[in-house]
Amino acid sequence: MIADETIDPTNLGLPQDPVFIVGLPRSGTTLLQSLLTTQPGLKSLPETHFFNSIVPSVELAPSGNVPLYSLDDMLRKVTLHCSLELPERLRSRLEALAGDGELTPKTIFEVVVKAFVSADNTTPLNRWIEKTPRHYRVLEPIRRHYPQAQILCMVRHPVAVMLSQCSNFTEGRPMPWEVRCGNWNHAIEIAEATRDVSPQQVLILSYEDLVADAHSTIDAVCRFLRVPFDANRLGEFGERTAHLKLPHEKWKEQVASGQLKNTNSSRLDSVDSLTLMRIQRIAGRLMVKYGYEIRHLRCQRVFNFLVTIVPVFALRVSCWKVANLIRNAIRKK
Asked: Where are the alpha helices (DSSP H) in the chain?
């Protein structure tokens, strides 16, 4: 997509009470985004990865602004992540701001938002929605930029999340289950901590509730966001997804097809016992808190005990062997 060259970075005019949808990837964030954008006055855009990926990878000035020498790098990454090209006239305006030391990362972010929401003529803009799952890691910077923002955090059964990640995200080095479980815990804990500080700003909801009763769930979300709810529009969510997904995001095709289906059971039925035990050992506390069943509870308790005791036993054996080696060495002297 090519941005409108008439966009003025000094007068973007965007509402300053956006909605950010976060959560671990494959938790149902795309489905939530698509259902919400069927509602009047709500517009969204493809994932930007702006605050969690683009900003940390670019050298900023001591003031936190974007220097002229970093602008090309930042805009190149915007194009890479968002498939958005900025025309020369718009780039020149950004370069002028950067040259004067007045270009902030927030301005570039809002240029991206403006480019997408202004291209959507289906409804007048009331509030805009940004959905990048991994933005859960940077909620504090987001809240500093947007004190009036509201955050929706999606939670889904960890086994379904992790197996879906493995089947859809195959690039790069394999991630250990323990790391994936830690990320699942971390996403929830950050959302809970932010909600504890500002209860009116954060809503945590589950994928399972959303697919079981989209009408009631989206109604509750709209009441939380203080926006109108129109149940008759929910059926348009597949069409909305088509405008929000990028060509390489094949994993969003089910939502784009308009299917509202819980796919957890196929994931849970296909997981092997050892993987299940490893996931439940680390994620078990929060699984229980959010209503997810711990399967094979007795076996899980035995597994947890063995994982705890075996390293201790191994350490004692190693110490005993070292002590014997030292004792033998002394005797030889």
From this structure: 29-36, 68-82, 88-99, 105-118, 139-145, 158-168, 177-197, 207-212, 214-225, 237-244, 253-256, 264-270, 273-289, 297-332
